[in-house]
Predict the 3D structure of the following.
Amino acid sequence: MSPNSFDWLNKDVHLFVVIVGFICLLYLSLKYCWLCFYACKTFVYGRWRKIDLLSHYGEYVVITGATDGIGLEFAKQFAQNGHSIVALGRNESKLKNVKAMIEPLLFDGRNVITVQADLNSTDTTIYQRVAEQLRPFKDRIAILINNAGVGTGKPDEFLNISEQEILTNIHVNIIGVLMVTRAVLPFMTENRKGLIINVSSMAAYRPVPFGACYSASKKFVQYFGSAIRYEYKKYNIHVQTLYPSFVATKMAEWSTFGKADSVLTPTTYEYVKSVMGTIGRSNDTSGYWSHAIFGTLSMLLPSDLYNVIADYTKTVITIKR
Ligand SMILES: NC(=O)c1ccc[n+]([C@@H]2O[C@H](COP(=O)([O-])OP(=O)(O)OC[C@H]3O[C@@H](n4cnc5c(N)ncnc54)[C@H](OP(=O)(O)O)[C@@H]3O)[C@@H](O)[C@H]2O)c1
């Protein structure tokens, strides 16, 4: 056989490799162009031209975990937007403070109502009581923010997390979301409109070693939100899931990222202001531009590398006490 008898094959293989390479390049270019366009639409256009949530959804915004952090900031910014607020919290004296803080921000004729409910409970009658307290203004219930959540503190192996912490995680992060939604959603289906915002976490993007319980509980929130988004679309009810990375609140205090002193850690004000622009523009969003970049990059890492980085950084980003 002459040395050149496979030349035709070499040419075809060459052409094949060039075509496949071109298609891959085109796919990746289109994908990243789309991501950039989507990011601009969500974080730039959304902030510039906010949707009028008051006329779109209605008056009352029910917020769980409204006594601190992100939930308290949601209460303030929705009140300044002309909404009435229902603040759910476990601590009566913190709820009184919330009322005092929100009242001066309200528009004329608007209201702030506080509802005491400890979501770390196996007593499901608390959710019936929540529904009862909302019933007098049921036709004006517009938005539910399932925000209350707990972490398991600094990253650690699963067996080092106490039984109590595990159960609290499940009660507040999972059962609380399900049962509060179950209490509020019937009013929205009756009204034939509504918005539910579920606060998950970037920890739901992929399994987080040394944060197994929290990460899995937030994945639950993601799946639940995506499923009911489809189920209740016909009632004109929208469901958005938020996946924040670090926001400067007491939940993030264990970490060197817990203070708002870097571009990766916004204050609650900056974070919620940015989220307000994403409402109606993105069903699933981190809510903040630098979190979106961080999240996209972290998704590109192969699992083994991601796990090694998580293992290494857990000690570096944990504040030693
Ligand atoms: N901060 C972050 O870096 C970060 C990152 C990703 C996701 N998130 C998520 O964002 C959400 C808000 O967290 P945050 O950062 O604002 O934390 P936070 O400052 O600790 O606030 C959490 C809120 O949930 C309430 N809460 C806790 N346990 C409760 C219970 N058993 N019953 C009723 N309410 C309860 C708290 O009430 P008290 O005021 O009584 O404590 C507080 O109002 C959570 O779902 C969290 O998982 C936060």
Summary: The CA atoms of residues 83 and 258 lie 30 Å apart. Residues 7-48 form the longest helix (42 residues). Strands lie at 60-64, 84-89, 112-116, 141-146, 194-199, 237-242, 284-285. The chain has one domain: 54-320.
